Every structure is written in C-alpha cells, then in structure tokens.
Amino acid sequence: MIDFQNILNTIVEEAKSEKNKGVVASYIPELAKADKNKFGVSLLDNKGKKYSAGNSNEQFSIQSISKVLSLSMAFKILGDDLWHRVGVEPSGDPYNHLSLLEMENGIPRNPLINAGAIVIADVLISQLKDPKKEFLKYVQQIANDSSITFDKSVAVSEKKTGFRNYAAANLIKSFGNLHNDVDEVLDFYFHQCSLIMSCQQLVDTFYLFVNRGNCLQNHAYLSLQQVKRINAIMLTSGFYDEAGEFAFKVGLPGKSGVGGGIVAILPDKFCLATWSPGLNKKGNSKLGMQALEKFTTRSNLSIF
Ligand code: GLN
Fold first, then answer.
1. Of 302, 25, 44, which is closest to residue 198 (Cα–Cα)?
2. Closest ligand 1 atom to the C-alpha of 190?
3. Which residue stretches of the chain have pLDDT < 70?
4. Residues having CB within 6 Å of any atom of ligand 1
5. pTM of the model
C-alpha cells in the first residue's frame, strides 16, 4: 500500500521551504493579489478516499482549468461535430498566441488554448438558453457541490485587460468560426475562467475523468469514449508549450491555470490537484509542476 498522506505531507513541507516560488500572474489585476506562500494539495483515490495537505481547503481562481469543463459540456451536447470547429493537435505555443490562428483560418489548434476555449464558449452560447447559469449548474452537478461559484470581481478584472482574447475572438469571427457576438462570447469565457475552487473541490469535480465518465455519486455524465478523448487532449495540450515537459516529467494528463492550480489524472486510479500561485515562464504553476513530478516519482504511478 502506498502511503499517499505521507507523500503529500512531505511535498507540502518541501514546497513551503522552496525559495524560488515563481511569479504571480498580474495581467489580470485581481490575480496579482494571490499570496505566493500558499500551497495546497489533494488526492482523491478510486475508492472515493480523499487525502489532503497544506492549504487544500482554500479557494482560488481556476482559470484555464475550466476549459476542460466547458469542453466536456460542449462535447456532451454536440458529439463529434465539435471537431469541425476546433482541432486536437498540440499548439507548441503559449496559451494566448495568435499567429497560428491566422495561418489556420480561424480553426484553433485545440480546445485548451484560449482561442479554442473561446470557440467552445461560442458553441455553448448557441446551445444553451442561459449559458452562464447552465454551465455553473453542470459544474456543480459533476462536483456534487452547489456552493461552487464564479468570482465576479475576477471576471470584471479580466474583461478590462483581456486585449489578446478580444484580438483572438475578432480574428476567429473574421473567419466565420464564431457565431455569436464577440462581447457575449468573451463575457461567458471570462466568467467560466473566474470559477473558484479549492484543491479539495477540484478533485471532486474532475473525478469523472478518472472514473470513466461517472461522477463521485456514480451518475454517468460522459461516455468512456468521450473521457478517453478529453484525457488525450489534456495530455497533449493541457500545458501549452510545456505539454511535452509535463508528460516527460510527470506522466499524467492534466490541466493548469494562471491562478496557480493544476489538476492531473490517472485513469481508474486517482485525481490529484495542487495550488501554488507562483508561475514559471510558460504560465504554469512552478511549485505545482515540481510537486506533481515528485508525486509520480515517489509513488511510481503514471500512465507510462
Ligand atoms: N483567463 C485567462 C486568459 O484568458 C486564462 C489563461 C490561463 O489560465 N492560462 O488569459
């Protein structure tokens, strides 16, 4: 038996004493308020047992981690037709990169870069009557936690400084791959990114990607086929131009956000979430990446 609790405790101790904790994102002014000294980690195993250490109960802005949730909802509604609007190849570029979008006629490389998530937001707006409310309800349901909410101050803050996302949305619109109004799509996108969760809530929410599409209460939300595809996209594209490095060092599908959260999955085994607000140069949590690498090394558990 692997002593998960002991591994997590050691990881937190080591993270707390690490001197170089990375740089907190400041291009969304509200995110700059985060405390770099916070570090949380939670693991939920396939028997539903949860192990946590550090600031695992403190909520933070999940940002791009939400792209997996919006993708799963759009995929559930639209099925394989979704892939006419967005690709499934890694971009090898930063999350907010624009030039590929111009060269590839407004079809984003994948749904986990900003441009791809903006197209997914457009799909959801077309399909849902009250998109923000219904998306939030979906997230609350898969997590079995009705307390999960948006942080409106973060959504408003991002709207004021989201120049690159406006550029991406306008470029996509110019190619005809955005069916709704740019402002409406970005309003949804900024809200989705502003979801706040703790590491403990994140592992509950992402449990269905471990458990073949069934949430903790065993309700089926996605088919095994759909979960397989989403986990594949997380592995190849969940960390932008650091996806290769994450697969190389950690060996799990996962997704990061500029709020400093990371969630990673070993199908049929566990869901693991870390939070440390300081980022590395690629916009992924510096200590979170290190912690996940230590976890898979010390537990000898990875998809490889
Ligand atoms: N909301 C952020 C943005 O659009 C999300 C980026 C991220 O978490 N990588 O820039």
1. 44
2. 1
3. none
4. 63-64, 95-96, 114, 158, 165, 193, 257-258, 283
5. 0.98
